[in-house]
Amino acid sequence: MSSQSFESTRRRLTPKQADTVDRLCAAAVDVLREEDFAGLTVRTVASRAGVGPATAYTYFSSKEHLVAEVFWRRLSGSPRPEPSESGRTGRVVAVLRDIALLLADEPGLSAAVTNALLGGDPDVEHLRGRIGLEIRGRLEGALGAGADPDVLETLELLYAGALLRAGMGYGSYEQLADRLERSATMILE
Fold this sequence. Notes:
The protein is elongated. The protein has nine helices and no strands. By secondary structure, the protein is an all-alpha fold. The N and C termini lie far apart (41 Å). The chain has helices at residues 15-34, 42-49, 53-59, 63-77, 87-100, 107-117, 122-143, 149-167, 173-188. The longest helix is centred in the C-terminal third of the chain and has 22 residues, at 122-143. This is TetR/AcrR family transcriptional regulator.
């Protein structure tokens, strides 16, 4: 198990607790393959994971929190693009493309993530901050030393806007990745 498996938004986890959280996250993805976000409930996920609803609520304050955790785990567990000789633009495009395609094969989950991350639950806000810092770190690394903070912020806004558009159904995540590439290239060149 990775170190992220032993840490949740709310507390440090024992191996048994980490297993329960892993099962809940996997069950949430399974449910989202059959239901949309509106049909997802913590109770349904708990049942699918083989735990009681009270146990699920011990770890997740809401379905938004659960889905945000799933995305955080996917993002933080995904490899960062390898440094390349393709220059700054190529590195930035690789980062944006990797993040955009992270959920491309799971449309139910990707739409749920957009909904979840817009929520006001304090646990979601915490995860949204962690997710933002991870994406910022990846973009900073791709831009290289001495990157213009305004360019970094523009790329963050580009990604956030693209995620929102895709979550609203305005194109697939593959199309999103292509659009991010074109837009980032326009910004950086």
